[in-house]
Amino acid sequence: MKKGRFGKYGGQFVNEMLMPALIELEEAFNKFYPTQAFQDELERLLRDYGGRPTPLYYAANFSKLIGCRVYLKREDLLCGGSHKLNNALGQTILAKKMGKTRIITETAAGQHGLATVMAGNICGLDTEIFIGVKDIKRQVSNVNRMKLLGAKITPVKSGEGILKDAVSDTLREWTACSQTTYYLMGSTVGPHPFPEIVASFQSIIGKEIKEQILKKREKKPDAILACGSGGSNALGAFRPFISDEEIRFYFVEGGGESLGANNSAAAFQLGKPGILHGALMQVLQDEYGQIKPSKTRAAGLNYPGRGPEISYLCETGRVKACYALDEDVFKAVRIMCRTEGLIPALETAHVIAYVLNHKSEFDKDENIVINYSGRGDKDLKAIMRYYYES
Ligand SMILES: *Cc1c(COP(=O)(O)O)cnc(C)c1O
């Protein structure tokens, strides 16, 4: 396969001004990432600061409801409340080794921005976070946390003032200042080598799942399920198992209110291949190829593109592309609260909703793993509004 390509997806569709920065990044990743010193520093921080390994929890009550054995990979317990820190810490250490003094990134729900400023502070780098003006209003608690930690918050007014516009502005900013500044991409999207870098750092999730399930059950899982938009938590969980042909993978995206034209974020159901933020991927677009804004109540799934690798794996059928609708997602939150005493992030609740709605796809003897990507504290307001005000 060609470098930076997953089938036809991926590549580097960028302004030539950005090429030197991408080449420098790829060379640095190949040079530093494999070294023992890099691995040791990352492992120490993920363990002592982040709290890894995260547990693989057998959810007995929820399992009874589904009719098979369900395990939750508890990324909600990683410091910051989601899987985002795995990637943010890895790339921040890389930025420091490259001699950069400043990190820029973009965020929507605020989970990635938060993880980035946490990692930036540990490594002594300044952090600037681009966030759409609409998202600033919707994510007050995470914006406050980022401010408190010392990040510079830059509101993005261009376009619709949401994530896709923030990514465009951050890429523009990076083009102007890549000598001193590192762009810390938050998911398995963007031009090569970002998708590869992010998937490498998130693969710690799947490596741990493998060890933990073999210890508990003495066999590999029958299926692994994850929610996603760019695909980073899903690929992190899937990658170490990809060559095991008998293991099934499910990728659950945001169906939104309904699969109607302007109410959804389901790019695998409604989109087509197209170029977004420097790579060819599955994208929501109109009949003229203009990017369509995605729509879902889960801010972390609100991106119109699916990263190159997950696009490829879904196209070839290795991963099953699924979706869940908002209504079912809110119901799933309450079921997880009542059965296991856990409040899931709205993103994570998409997987839970899918499993609840498709029990017959899982045999009673099977062990399945849900990548439990985050906790729901950030979504409390939306959840309470749904249950008590409608
Ligand atoms: C950001 C986020 C996601 C989606 O991001 P991917 O890169 O597609 O994994 C899912 N769940 C949570 C809790 C998130 O914060």
Q: How would you describe the shape?
A: globular
Spans of at least 5 consecutive residues whose pLDDT stays below 50 are none
- The strand count comes to 15
Rg, rounded, reads 19 Å
- Count helical runs: 16
- Total domains, how many? 2
Main beta-sheet strand count, sense and barrel state: 6 strands, mixed
The small molecules bound here are: pyridoxal-5'-phosphate
At the first level of CATH, the class of the largest domain is Alpha Beta
**Strand line-up of the largest beta sheet:** 3-4-15-9-10-14
The termini sit apart by 51 Å
Keywords:
single chain; 390 residues; alpha/beta; Rossmann fold; 2 domains; 6-stranded mixed sheet; 4-stranded parallel sheet; globular; binds pyridoxal-5'-phosphate
Report on this model:
The structure is a single chain. The longest helix has 15 residues, at 36-50. The model has no long low-confidence stretch (mean pLDDT 96). The chain has 16 helices and 15 strands. The protein has 2 domains: 5-46 and 83-199, Rossmann fold; 51-81 and 203-389, 3-Layer(aba) Sandwich (Rossmann fold). The protein is an alpha/beta fold. The protein is 44% helix and 19% strand. Helix 5 (111-123) links the parallel strand 5 and strand 6 (126-132). Helix 2 (36-50) crosses helix 4 (84-97), helix 4 (84-97) runs parallel beside helix 5 and helix 4 (84-97) crosses helix 9 (194-202). The chain has a 6-stranded mixed sheet, with helices on both faces. The structure holds pyridoxal-5'-phosphate. Pyridoxal-5'-phosphate binds next to helix 11 and helix 15.
